[in-house]
């Protein structure tokens, strides 16, 4: 028989940003974070994992190209943890079950979006890798009649070993990654704050400003920030804990105005912290800043007229914007972004204007 499983995981976009590690090996963060996972039919990674006693080595293909599996690296730690769970929870309990944990793996992962697009491909990638191997090993049952032997939060601990933000893609909807306090990391896991159906009118518009690969990687950038930024220490202690509480309440209440204010403020503080790093890190470009100005102006006009905001921008470690808005405003926001940037066919936007409507 063939031992193989295929699963998908979507990209998630943080509203409260993860930036800084207290442990670089276990990938333990300096603050909690919160994100929205895009729906399965938008930006996602799909991974197939196969175990076979005849495989002479473990191989990973990313979009068809063989990836180097560094000894002692993140990928190896993820695989070791999944094998340990398979041994302890499945093989040790049933001597007749095949010892998949002793066999090599072939893992093939594909993104349905360009990897170079500067969009969070490591988050969906490590989440899909973790869930596919967990399914292969019988750790996560997708058959509701069968009991599963690991929870999504437990699997988030494994995905976290691959890339911090990946732990949040194990859940759909609104997801918190709790900072935790244990030095071994068992309480630094993802939990679902609310499912997607709780607030189905929430949309994420992914605006690709520049699809070139970013200058400073998240991993090295945040390490430099931890080493040099005093503003980060203020953010960790005095800002994020209150913001986490406030945004969770905004989500529970479906209070878009509060959600939007917190999301924009946190994106801006994250980029301020990047600038406070020595040497400074610049992720936003002129187009990013123009998008901020347009959304701020839209919100100002809307607030004067209706007392409510219409959109919230957020930017990760690159110039691309994600604009959160509710269903009734999606058409207007897309039209306005296109109208305010008539240079859309020429530079600096790629041609064609690449705006995914990532329905939540
Ligand atoms: C700005 O998860 O890519 O997107 O843990 O080193 O793999 P590593 O970093 P990564 O960092 C993501 C940073 C961010 C904010 C966020 O997603 O919360």
TrEMBL record:
Pathway connected to this protein: Isoprenoid biosynthesis; isopentenyl diphosphate biosynthesis via mevalonate pathway; isopentenyl diphosphate from (R)-mevalonate: step 3/3
What NCBIfam families does the entry give?
Answer: mevDPdecarb (TIGR01240)
Superkingdom field: Eukaryota
Q: Which reaction does it catalyse?
A: (R)-5-diphosphomevalonate + ATP = isopentenyl diphosphate + ADP + phosphate + CO2
GO cellular component labels:
cytosol
What species is this protein from?
Answer: Rhodocollybia butyracea
Q: Which SUPFAM superfamilies match?
A: GHMP Kinase, C-terminal domain, Ribosomal protein S5 domain 2-like
Domain (Mvd1 C-terminal): residue spans on this chain: 204-360
Name under which the protein is recorded: Diphosphomevalonate decarboxylase
Q: Which PANTHER family match?
A: DIPHOSPHOMEVALONATE DECARBOXYLASE (PTHR10977:SF3)
Tell me which UniProt keywords the record has, alphabetically: ATP-binding, Lipid biosynthesis, Lipid metabolism, Lyase, Nucleotide-binding, Steroid biosynthesis, Steroid metabolism, Sterol biosynthesis, Sterol metabolism
Query: Which Pfam family, giving just one, matches this sequence?
Result: MVD-like_N
A biological process (GO) annotation for this entry? sterol biosynthetic process
Q: Which InterPro entries match?
A: GHMP_kinase_C_sf (IPR036554), Mev_decarb (IPR005935), Mev_diP_decarb (IPR029765), MVD-like_N (IPR053859), Mvd1_C (IPR041431), Ribosomal_Su5_D2-typ_SF (IPR020568), Ribsml_uS5_D2-typ_fold_subgr (IPR014721)
Q: Does the keyword Lyase apply?
A: yes
């Amino acid at each position: 028989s063939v031992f193989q499983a295929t699963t998908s995981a979507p990209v998630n976009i943080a509203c409260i940003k993860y930036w800084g590690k207290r442990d670089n090996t276990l990938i333990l963060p300096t603050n909690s974070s919160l994100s929205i996972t895009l729906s399965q039919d938008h930006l996602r990674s799909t991974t197939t994992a196969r175990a076979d006693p005849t495989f002479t080595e473990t191989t990973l293909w990313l979009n068809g190209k063989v990836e180097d599996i560094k000894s002692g690296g993140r990928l190896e730690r993820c695989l070791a943890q999944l094998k340990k769970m398979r041994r302890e929870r499945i093989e040790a309990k049933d001597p007749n079950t095949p010892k998949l944990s002793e066999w090599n793996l072939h893992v093939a992962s594909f993104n349905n979006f360009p990897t170079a697009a500067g969009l969070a491909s490591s988050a969906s990638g490590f989440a899909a890798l973790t869930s596919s191997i967990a399914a292969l090993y019988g750790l996560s049952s997708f058959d509701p009649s069968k009991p599963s032997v690991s929870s999504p939060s437990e699997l988030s601990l494994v995905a976290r070993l691959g890339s911090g933000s990946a732990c949040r893609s194990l859940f759909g909807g609104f997801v918190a990654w709790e900072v935790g306090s244990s030095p071994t990391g068992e309480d630094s896991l993802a939990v679902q704050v609310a499912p997607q159906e709780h607030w189905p009118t929430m949309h994420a518009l992914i605006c690709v400003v520049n699809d070139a690969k970013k200058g400073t990687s998240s991993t090295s950038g945040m390490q430099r920030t931890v080493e040099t930024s005093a503003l980060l220490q203020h953010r960790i202690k005095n800002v994020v804990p209150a913001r986490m509480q406030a945004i969770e309440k905004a989500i529970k209440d479906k209070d878009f105005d509060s959600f939007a204010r917190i999301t924009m403020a946190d994106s801006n503080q994250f980029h301020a912290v990047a600038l406070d790093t020595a040497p400074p890190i610049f992720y936003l470009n002129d187009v990013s800043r123009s998008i901020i100005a347009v959304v701020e102006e839209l919100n100002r006009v809307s607030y004067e007229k209706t007392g409510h905001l219409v959109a919230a921008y957020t930017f990760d470690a690159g110039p691309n914007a994600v604009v959160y808005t509710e269903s009734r405003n999606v058409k207007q926001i897309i039209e306005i972004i296109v109208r305010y940037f008539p240079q859309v066919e020429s530079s600096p936007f790629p041609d064609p204007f690449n705006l995914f409507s990532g329905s939540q």
